Write a sequence for this structure.
């Protein structure tokens, strides 16, 4: 860690080269702790302005940037400050907001530090450094309110809410699922909710990487007892990404003891992992079996409606109205995980806020072209109908006809469901393309198929297979 101190007494409006070094550090720390996309979209447009005593002034293009960075990356910013400065520094973002009568750009000379206007000329947005809920490591953004419920996450969400409210029979609670599906969000939401409705609890969120690091540091500095005491006095322990403990025997052992102490004392433990516990090869058998004492629930990729709701929620949160077709476009194209969907939304909105222009599907396609290249090809309803008919060995025109025999009806429902999932069409549009059926019929099909998927593993697999086939044929 590089240590720097600053003693300048007044605001340096035409800063010396020192600030460039500092800036480099600060930015590099952020670069290594943020996804590339986030870094390029949000951090690169920031500019260093001045350091005045213990205040570090940086410029962002608009208030929107400040809101977004503070709302999403506050902990990374804080870490970057800690890594850059030897003592606490107050970070002040200066937004060249329209409200402040400024166009938002500060001219820069290549290779030099941009000249800042006097801070008084800017709308000083607010100091950073809100530490959420202190040492709990909770990010106030992740709450149940902001978590959109849909069929694949309903159970995990309900269980999480019960735990937050103090239902002790789910102990431990483990939530597992793929990347970007909301595990961390739910885990943090448990902490945030418990913090509010059961004040006074000692709550701690930590991911397994940091838990390991904390433990290794404690051993190194002969502070193992302190470490144990710290973790064994927690009322609600939220440990994220348990799969990172695989292969780390000593840390696992320590966690095992922590687990036992907490569990025996009736304290709540919540874990997440990317796989079900039995598939976590290399995780201590005893730990796997203890996880089985509680409740294990999975979380899957959100369906189309949930994705649309997530985009709408994001838009509302950020105070942006997205045209409906752009919303549908996003939900349709980014169907694998919520993180990518959010990333795409963020890029669109950043683009629109900088250019002040209205978004269209065409523009969205252009802005997101890099991320779309690797995505699945777009699919038409008639392709789906053809593939489904050959898969079930039923003539395609029967899917549209008014025939209600069992195999035909089932294939039709599957095709409707795939249409909803893969083409992003509305219930009405699907109905129209299936012999002018009513949208309630399509809704019924959707519910039926979702239920089959939930209840029948074989069926659920066949849906994945069908999707792959359709994508293969479309590309
Ligand atoms: P994971 O921990 O499963 O990899 P995260 O919890 O980090 O995923 O989720 C990735 C992003 O997607 C977060 O910004 C989170 O807020 C958002 N997200 C995931 N699922 C939902 C949901 N159901 N509703 C709203 N936002 C969600
Ligand atoms: Mg996570």
């Amino acid at each position: 860690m590089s240590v720097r101190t600053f003693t300048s007494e007044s605001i340096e409006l035409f800063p010396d080269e020192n600030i460039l070094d500092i800036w480099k550090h600060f930015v590099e720390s952020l670069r290594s702790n943020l996804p590339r996309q986030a870094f390029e979209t949000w951090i690169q447009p920031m500019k260093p302005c001045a350091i005045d005593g213990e205040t570090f002034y940086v410029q962002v293009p608009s208030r929107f940037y400040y809101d977004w960075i503070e709302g999403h990356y506050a902990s990374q910013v804080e870490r970057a400050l800690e890594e850059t400065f030897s003592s606490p520094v107050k970070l002040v973002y200066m937004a060249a907001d329209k409200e402040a009568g400024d166009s938002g750009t500060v001219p820069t000379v290549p290779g030099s530090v941009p000249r800042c206007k006097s801070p008084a000329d800017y709308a000083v947005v607010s100091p950073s450094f809100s530490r959420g809920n202190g040492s709990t490591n909770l990010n106030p953004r992740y709450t149940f309110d902001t978590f959109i419920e849909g069929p694949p996450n309903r159970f995990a969400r309900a269980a999480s809410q019960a735990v937050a409210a103090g239902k002790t029979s789910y102990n431990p609670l483990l939530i597992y699922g793929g990347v970007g599906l909301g595990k961390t969000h739910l885990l943090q939401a448990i902490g945030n909710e418990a913090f509010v409705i059961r004040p006074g609890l000692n709550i701690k969120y930590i991911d397994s990487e940091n838990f390991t690091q904390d433990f290794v540091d404690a051993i190194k500095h002969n502070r193992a007892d302190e470490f144990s005491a710290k973790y064994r006095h927690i009322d609600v322990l939220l440990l994220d990404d348990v799969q990172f403990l695989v292969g780390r025997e000593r840390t696992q052992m320590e966690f095992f003891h922590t687990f036992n102490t907490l569990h025996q004392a009736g304290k709540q433990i919540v874990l997440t992992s990317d796989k079900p516990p039995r598939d976590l090869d290399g995780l201590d058998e005893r730990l796997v079996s203890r996880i089985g004492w509680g409740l294990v629930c999975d979380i899957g990729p959100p369906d189309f409606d949930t994705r649309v709701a997530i985009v709408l929620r994001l838009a509302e949160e950020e105070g942006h109205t997205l045209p409906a077709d752009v919303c549908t476009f996003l939900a349709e194209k980014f169907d694998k995980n919520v993180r990518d969907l959010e990333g795409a939304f963020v890029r669109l909105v950043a683009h629109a806020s900088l250019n002040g222009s209205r978004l269209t599907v065409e523009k969205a396609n252009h802005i997101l072209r890099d991320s779309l290249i690797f995505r699945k090809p777009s699919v038409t309803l008639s392709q789906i109908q053809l593939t489904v008919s050959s898969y079930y060995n039923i003539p395609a025109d029967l899917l549209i006809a008014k025939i209600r025999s069992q195999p035909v009806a089932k294939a039709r429902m599957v095709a409707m469901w795939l249409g909803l999932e893969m083409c992003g069409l509305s219930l009405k549009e699907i109905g129209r393309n299936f012999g002018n059926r009513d949208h309630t019929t399509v809704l019924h099909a959707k519910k039926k198929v979702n239920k089959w998927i939930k209840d029948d593993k074989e069926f659920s697999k066949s849906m994945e297979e069908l999707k792959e086939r359709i994508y293969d044929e479309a590309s």
